[in-house]
Design goal:
- It comes from Bizionia echini.
- InterPro entries: ACP-like_sf (IPR036736).
- This is Acyl carrier protein.
- About 60% of the residues lie in helices and about 0% in strands.
- The chain has about 90 residues and is mainly alpha-helical.
- It has a single domain, classed as ACP-like (Non-ribosomal Peptide Synthetase Peptidyl Carrier Protein, Chain A), CATH 1.10.1200.10.
- The longest helix is centred in the middle third of the chain and has 15 residues.
- The protein is globular, with a radius of gyration of 12 Å.
Length: about 90
């Protein structure tokens, strides 16, 4: 299981091309909301999710995608999907 700080750093690399709020990105933390804090639009949020799937070689179902609104939820879902693979 990857450690949380590393996962947040990896997530920052994934979301960087899609953010519209540089300050929100610089201060990104577990509680950051992708749409409200980072200003990622909903179309780009799909790109973020696809990039996460590629990075970790996992697949999200629609229910998981609907929940992936902030960093904390994304980390929980990524960890859940990684553990299901093992």
């Amino acid at each position: 299981m990857p450690d949380k700080d590393n996962m947040i750093a990896e997530l920052k690399l994934i979301v960087k091309p899609y953010i519209q709020d540089e300050e929100g990105f610089e201060n990104m933390h577990e509680g950051s909301d992708f749409i409200n804090d980072l200003k990622i639009n909903s179309a780009n949020l799909i790109d973020v999710i696809l990039d996460i799937e590629d990075k970790y070689d996992i697949v999200f179902d629609n229910e998981s995608m609907d929940k992936m609104l902030n960093v904390r939820a994304a980390l929980e879902i990524i960890n859940q999907k990684i553990s299901e693979k093992q």
